[in-house]
Amino acid sequence: MSRRKLFSGREIYNHEKSDSLFLEAVKKNILYHKSNCREYEEILDSMDFHINDLTSMEDLYKLPSIPTMYLKTHYLASMSKRRLLVKATSTGTSGTYSRIGYNFLSLFYGAVMAWKLLQFHGLFSLKRTNYILLGYEPHRSNETIITKTQLLSTFMAPAKQRVYALQYKDHGYEVNFDDIKNALDQYSRQKNPVRLIGFPYYTLFLLKELKKNQISYQLPKGSMVLLGGGWKGFYQEETEKETLFQMIREILGIEEENCREFFGAAEHPVLYCTCPNHHFHVSNYSRVIIRDVMSLEPVKNGQPGLVNLMTPMADSMPLTSIMTDDLGVLYDGNQCGCGIETPYLEILGRIGMKEIQTCAVNAADLLGE
Question: What is the number of domains present in the chain?
Fold first, then answer.
């Protein structure tokens, strides 16, 4: 009941009103997973955690977090696989990836969350749209969740055509930037809006290629750039947002207000979308704790640490509290100035662990890095 009320509420950025529902939903989610996942029960018991430890929102840090690296080597589930309607993997390589699955109810609440967030941020349109996806073309051999979500993002506006930067050919993926350039030539002469969707690094790579060849476009009105997936293994190449948006405006003719970013994790099913000031505000459907890298104790807003993501959305797997390998900072919402008052998250990068590899790193081979 508390989860249903949490996800059915009209407001999506109001922690003050949603805190009590969120806490109650988290407690029920924990009890459900503890009763249905023996491994999760053992984790809670080994950490001497009791549900009565959670008496207020300030106690959420006491809930043991499951590291994403643990899920890359251990499969945790609270129901049988036959009940999972959607199965996917994280973007790990060399066999180190998380296996994620969602049942009907988890997917339902995920759909409600996504609909409300995308509607709030003005991303739905009825205009037929040409899509350029700077990522992997869907293929039965590719089960990564980022590939599935990029495809789903093309349903925010009816698709006229889709072109992928990484196309599946002869049992493997190949970079196809020539087709991307040809598509831009074609789309720039049409009236349909264009949406470029994909990793920031691929976007930067495309922009640099076009600039090197002295190519620029004025894409149709309503065109957008939607960035997601982070810089992954390319943090050394990360470009200031202002510089990236300026390049997008000069080379593609798309203004900054039509550039959006998304943040998420395969192990955490909540979507984060930037506000007009390009900040990831935390919605009612999740909470974020920043933890000290050494002690794992929570730090104050404004201080960097490991990003701990929490949500009571999923029944299928104990994903209630996930410790990512991202470094980030949480800021008070009033520091943003966009009007959204919930705290916002800034991702600084990833911790320097050699075993952490992602699909972006794997794709670097295709890009000749």
Answer: 2
Q: pLDDT digits over 169-216, tens only?
A: 877 888 888 899 999 999 999 999 999 998 888 899 899 999 999 999
Mean pLDDT for the stretch of residues 30-54: 96
Q: What CATH number is associated with residue 171?
A: 3.40.50
pLDDT value at position 96?
74
Block residue for tokens 């459907």: 285
Same domain? 120 vs 95 = no
Which residues are 175's β-sheet partners? Answer: 166
Q: pLDDT of 293-317, one tens digit each? A: 999 999 999 999 999 999 999 999 9
What pLDDT, in 10s, does the model give residues 264-284?
888 999 999 999 999 999 999
Tell me whether residue 277 is in a domain: no
Looking at the structure, tell me whether residues 39 and 85 fall in a common domain.
Answer: yes
The CATH number for 306's domain is: 3.40.50.12780
Q: Which of 67, 90, 97 is nearest to 307 (CA)?
A: 67
pLDDT for the residue numbered 219: 97
Domain assignment of residue 51, yes or no: yes
pLDDT score of 144: 82
- Residues 78-120 pLDDT 10s: 999 999 998 888 776 445 778 999 999 999 999 999 999 999 9
Structural domain span for residue 133: 115-264+356-366
- pTM for the full model? 0.89
